[in-house]
Amino acid sequence: MAAPPEAGGLVSIVVPVYDEEGNLRPLHAAIVETMGDRPFELILVDDGSRDGSPAILDELADADPRVRVIHFVRNYGQTAALRAGIEHARGEVIVTLDADLQNDPRDIPGMLEKLDEYDVITGWRRDRRDPLLTRTLPSRAANWLISRLSKVPLHDYGCTLRVYRREYVHDIPLYGEMHRFIPIYVTWAGARLAEVPVRHHPRRHGRSKYGLGRIPKVLLDLTTLKFLRDYFVNPIYFFGWLGFMLVLAGLLAGIAALVLWAQPDQPFLAAALTVVSPLLAIFGVVEITLGVIAEVLIRMHYEILGKPPYRIDRVRNLPGATTIHDAARPAGS
Fold first, then answer.
1. How many CB atoms lie within 10 A of CB 300?
2. pLDDT digit string (tens) for 24-46?
3. Does 220 fall in a domain?
């Protein structure tokens, strides 16, 4: 996809939206108040909302020409929504934030000022207002793990409130749940990265779309990211070490089984250890390996074809965007 035209001084604010009808008007008002006289565009990406969000988005676009709306044909996820907004942004500076009003638009001006020293500024919800057991503690554990494996230490990989120089984020291939790993991608590209504390508010309207069910997705995406970072050029090192670990696990299981077989009172445990343990280990590695290979293949598919991982139904105030109706229209009509 061709890069959008340059727009000096313009700030593009990208917000993914999914069932946020109660937050959209206050969010728009807060952004307008915060940005003041600074030129900006607000790109709201409707990720297949099932409530009244689409109608409210169109109303905002009709009332304010700075509001640009993208409606997906169905729900594709937050990463696809962010990618669509970033790809259609015209500003040299791109800001991302959530639509649930837990991110505070008042933090944007201070983050923009730091672009004199840095290329990417990411928010840190130091005083997080989310449930401790289901949101905060799992997030802290994930942040620690991601920081250790990626060698890009951040307190908060899950904060959507971020500010980017366009050249560092526009061409990042975003699929799956990879939006949280954008800080890692930009450091690979040489960006200067800063993390700053930002406000965080309790959710007042709507229901959170995040929960413990996202943990497996994050762990699998992190596995893929680790593979792409360290083993993409030499995958034998990745699969070879897994093979050695399997052989070692099988050897240890065999030794334990022999010891248990020598004890006549443990026949069932010995039999189970002999059969089940190596099978489970092998099946688990096969599944993870196939997942990594599938991730690499799907990336090749999208990159070779230049096809985005989403389809747009219709737009408002966004000339040049290709919708499913444009794609179905015969050439030259």
1. 10
2. 999 999 999 999 999 999 999 99
3. no
